[in-house]
Automatic annotation (TrEMBL):
Cleavable signal peptide: none
Quaternary structure, from the entry: A connexon is composed of a hexamer of connexins.
Record-annotated Connexin N-terminal domain positions: 42-75
One example GO MF annotation: gap junction channel activity
Protein name: Gap junction protein
Organism for this UniProt entry: Brachypteracias leptosomus (short-legged ground-roller)
Length: 219
């Protein structure tokens, strides 16, 4: 899978972000995207072939693997990367709309089409809420699908067509567990950055509005 589009998207969004937003982009790019491409994808690549049960009953390994891993960790991680990065497009589209509108008007509509204020500020707020919300949704999804943030060495399966309870072994459980903990920690950091940026913007613009009202009242 090519991740060039996602990399270009994150690089483009960087131009319209605040300081905390740029840190979020760096975390997503380095700790999510690069780690996924460089290491995690290879660790889970042959997870089905390396999943072994102590019985050779036809179909038993397949149904047991599907039961314990309804969605591959790595595919869910890839989906999370795409979904969490997508709300940033809202800001890019809004800036593009402003710049296009400015071109077709004889008078200046905005002090700077890329300045985060007015409608663009609302769009930026929405994108931050969506990014934090999606991170939380995927963390809950990981927890529910895999019964916690852990990768067991051994699972016991008694699903048909297995004739009895069989032992199934997961390949490289320790290595997978390390990357899963890393994923959870990175997601928590991204949530904290999104909420910090949201709080920072709300505080900044509320102070600005109150100061403006105070000046107008004094005048």
């Amino acid at each position: 899978m090519s991740w060039r589009f996602l990399r270009d998207l994150l690089s483009g969004v960087n131009k319209y972000s605040t300081g905390i937003g740029r840190i979020w982009i760096a975390v997503v790019f380095i700790f999510h995207l690069l780690v996924y491409i460089a290491a995690a994808e290879n660790i889970w690549r042959y997870e089905h072939d390396e999943f072994e049960c102590n019985i050779k009953q036809p179909g038993c390994e397949n149904v047991c693997f599907d039961h314990f891993f309804p969605v591959s960790h790595i595919r869910l991680w890839a989906l999370q990367l795409i979904m969490v990065s997508t709300p940033s497009l809202l800001v890019v589209f809004h800036v593009a709309y402003r710049e296009n509108r400015e071109k077709h008007q004889t008078q200046k509509l905005y002090r700077s089409p890329r300045k985060i204020d007015g409608g663009l500020l609302c769009t930026y707020f929405i994108s931050l809420i969506l990014k934090a919300g999606l991170e939380i949704v995927f963390l809950v999804l990981f927890y529910k699908l895999y019964d916690g943030f852990k990768v067991p060495r051994l699972v016991k399966c008694d699903i048909r067509p297995c004739p009895n309870t069989v032992d199934c072994y997961i390949s490289k459980p320790t290595e997978k567990m390390i990357f899963l903990c890393f994923l959870v920690a990175t997601s928590c950091l991204c949530i904290a950055l999104n909420l910090s940026e949201l709080s920072h913007l709300i505080f900044k613009y509320s102070i600005k509005c109150n100061l403006k009202r105070y000046i107008e009242k004094r005048q």
